[in-house]
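Posted in: Structural Biology > Protein-Ligand Complexes

Title: Requesting predicted complex, FE2/S2 (inorganic) cluster in pocket

I'd be grateful if someone could produce the 3D structure tokens for the following input. Sequence and ligand are given below.
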Amino acid sequence: MAAPVMQALVRTMRLEARDVISLELVPAPGQVLTAFEPGAHIEVHLPGLVRAYSLLNAWVPDAPRYVVAVLKDAKSRGGSRYIHEQLRVGQTVTISQPRNNFKLDESKPADAPTVLLAGGIGVTPLLGMMRALSSQGQRVQMVYCARTRQSAAYLDELQSLCNARVSLHTHFDDEQGAPDLSKLLAGLPSDARLYACGPAPMLDAFVQTCADLGYTHAHIERFAAAPRVEDAAPVEGYAVRLQKSGAVVQVPPGTSILHALIAAGHHPDHSCGEGVCGSCETRVISGDVEHRDSILSAAEQAANKSMMICVSRCRSGELVLDL
Ligand code: FES
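-- Reply #1 --
Done. Output follows.
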């Protein structure tokens, strides 16, 4: 079963920076948009493909709308090129309901600072976070890295959110060279909450820097799956027991649980197939899971309460899922 979808109308499209346009989506007649919190994304169904985009606006119940921004990517596999070159105001698009794998940490101590690290178009989920935290009077430091000033979207809006407790630090590669994250992130208290979104090399560097500096509350949102080191030895097949239906499905070596379930006539929710969207997250009842997704934190993976069945698998024995 695919994630629930709805129809939305493209009300406006706006150039926000070099090669970045925003789409304002409002409900098509008879459709209802559902509420979301900062960090959420929607999937946009385009001809032959589905792409996830972070929501950057604030949710206003009286004026429901979703706003996303899309970078025209030179290496586009079709999504960003279609949006920039063919999608137009007035057209209807199919979108999923919002999903949030990148929520603000509600367990944060009252005065712990929040650091938001944006790389290029990765600013979109962080803009919503900065807006929410700023309105709550929280301490926030946004570090916004982009190749050039001209390619950095939403600079004015970020600047307008700054006050005595909210600051913005910008870094443009063409003016300052490559950013040094260990310098940019140094000196934070250990209870600081850090969130990063941007290209994979920056996120890999962020994860390493946080580990080096002893920051344990670091969260990331990836555009695409993290590179994965494949096992040298082939994985054995294994059985998955579906607790609710009582069915037992055999997962052959080299096949994902998701595909084995579909082949056996089941309809698990799914979308990206790469462990980045969260659609296929399934509660684990028991089993020795090898987590291979890009969503769950190390602590969440160790807790083993749920897994992404499109990429994660069973190391040994039987796996029992809440399906
Ligand atoms: S289908 Fe997207 S995480 Fe599994």
